[in-house]
Amino acid sequence: MAKLRGEAFWRETLRSAHYVVAPMVDQSELAWRLLSRRHGAQLCYTPMLHAQVFLRDANYRRENLYGEACPEDRPLIVQFCANDPEVFVQAALLAQDYCDAIDLNLGCPQMIAKRGHYGAFLQEEWDLLQRMILLANEKVSVPITCKIRVFPDIDKTVKYAQMLEKAGCQLLTVHGRTKEQKGPLAGVASWEHIQAVRKAVNIPVFANGNIQCLSDVEECIRKTGVHGVMSAEGNLHNPALFEGRNPLVWEMAEEYLEIVQKYPCPLSYVRAHLFKLWHHTLQVYQQLREELAKVKTLEGIVDVNRELKLRCQEEIANQKEGEKPKEGLPFFHWICQPYIRPGPKERCRENGDSGTEKGVRGKRALEEEEDGNSELLSKNKQKKKLRNPNKSFDPSLKPKYAKCDQCGNPKGNKCVFNMCRGCCKKRAFKEVADCPGHGLLFKTKYEKSLSWQHNQRGIQTPEISQRGDAEVEEMAVLKEAGDS
C-alpha cells in the first residue's frame, strides 16, 4: 500500500488533528502524552530523539519508543535531530513501525543544538536538508515531516518552506520565532510568517507559538488558516488546555502520577512536570519547592504533591468572600493557568532589585556584591551558594597550593616525590616504589608477590626484596638441575 501524502495523510492517518502536543525534550514522554490525550490533544510527538544515539543504543530505543505497547498513544509522530542523511534514514527505519510519521527537527535553538550542529542551526544548509528529506522520503514507509523556525525575512521563510515541500516533506510545523528568540528573549511569535507559509505551500501546516489557552488556538487557526495548532509550554502548565478548561492543579498532578505508576519514566521528568503544574503555588510555598527539588523517589514526589494539595485546600477554606488572585494572575495559584515567561527587565524585577532580598530567589541569575563589584552568578553557582551561603567565588580568595614538580597541578601534601597523584603514580610504578601519601604501594605489593611465589615453590631465600624475577627463575632452574 502506497503511503499517504499531504492532505490525505493529515486527514486519514492523523485523523484531521487540530490540537497537537509539541515534541519536548524529557517532557513529552508516554505518560504525559496519555494525560494530554485524555484532555483534548488529538496528536502527540515524542521528545526530540538523537538519531545517532537511537541508531547505536538499544537501551535508548527501548526507553524512548520500544517500551510497553500502548494503543491509545496514536496517532504519534517520532521526532529526530540529525545532520547526516544516512544516519537519519537508518534511525527512521528503526522507528517507522512504531509511529505514523517521522519528523526532522529543524527548530531547536538551544546551545546543545549549536554544538551538535542540528535543529535550527541547519536552516541555512538547504542542500543538506534536501538530501536528508529526499532520501528519507524514498526509503521510509511512513511520511516525513519537518518542524522549523522562521527567518526574520518572510520571503526567505516562504522559500525555505517551499524547498522542504519540494524535497518531500508531507507536513510542516512552523514555530513563528527565529532561532535567536529563546528564553527571556523569546518575545511574541509571528503569526504573519506562519500565514505566509500556509498560503505558499500545498501541504498541511501546523502553527506553534503564543498558545496559552483554547481561545488562542481558535484565533490562530482563524488568522493563519493552518490545519492545526501545536502547544508546548501552554500544555505543560495546563494539560487540559485543548478542552478549554482550567482545572485544579492537584487534579492534573494526581492523574499524571497515576499514569506514571503504570508507565514509568525517569524521576527527573516527573519532577519537572510538577514544577510546571505547581509553578505559581511553589512561589508561595518555597519550602515545599525545596522539598520537591530534593526528593529522591516517586513516593516522595507523591507526598509533596499531597502536601501542596492540603495547603491549597486550607487556603481555600480560609478564603474571604470577594478575595481576588494575587500577583496579577488571572486565577488563584492552585488553578492551572498560563505562565508568561518574563523578559530580561521583568526577570530582574521578579528577582528583586539586588537579587539578595530575603526569600527572593533568582531563577537564572543572582547578583552578589563582592568587594563592591556586582558579579552575575551562573545557575550552578547559585546552587552552590544556596548550599553554602558563606562561599565566595572571588579568585583572589582561593587558597594557594604548592605545585607538582612535573606538571604544575597541586601536589600531594605527603607525597614522597613532591608530585600530584597522576605524576606520582607514573614514577612510583617506574621505580617500583611506595608513596604512602597517595596510597601507592607498588614496592610492597611486588615484595608480597615474590614472597608468595617462593612459598609456592618451597624455596627459602633471604633478601627477597633485593631480587628480581629473573634471579628467582634462575635459582629455581639450578635447584631442579641439582635435584636430578
From TrEMBL:
Keyword annotations of the record: Cytoplasm, Flavoprotein, FMN, NAD, NADP, Nucleus, Oxidoreductase, tRNA processing
Example GO molecular function term? tRNA dihydrouridine synthase activity
Q: What class of enzyme is it?
A: oxidoreductase
Pfam families, per the entry: DUF702, Dus
Cofactor or coenzyme needed = FMN
Residues covered by the DUS-like FMN-binding domain = 21-310
- EC number(s): the record gives 1.3.1.88
Superkingdom? Eukaryota
Q: Bias category Basic and acidic residues: which stretches?
A: 346-366
Outline the segment boundaries, as ranges, of region: Disordered: 346-394
- List cellular component terms (GO): cytoplasm; nucleus
- What SUPFAM superfamilies does UniProt report for this protein, alphabetically? FMN-linked oxidoreductases
Instruction: Quote the subcellular location field of this record.
Output: Cytoplasm; Nucleus
**Catalytic activity line of the entry:** 5,6-dihydrouridine(17) in tRNA + NAD(+) = uridine(17) in tRNA + NADH + H(+); 5,6-dihydrouridine(17) in tRNA + NADP(+) = uridine(17) in tRNA + NADPH + H(+); 5,6-dihydrouridine(16) in tRNA + NAD(+) = uridine(16) in tRNA + NADH + H(+); 5,6-dihydrouridine(16) in tRNA + NADP(+) = uridine(16) in tRNA + NADPH + H(+)
Report the sequence similarity comment from the record. Answer: Belongs to the Dus family. Dus1 subfamily.
Q: What does this protein do?
A: Catalyzes the synthesis of dihydrouridine, a modified base found in the D-loop of most tRNAs. Specifically modifies U16 and U17 in cytoplasmic tRNAs. Affects the level of some mature tRNA and thereby the total cellular translation.
Q: Which named protein is this?
A: tRNA-dihydrouridine(16/17) synthase [NAD(P)(+)]-like
Species this chain originates from: Callaeas wilsoni (North Island kokako)
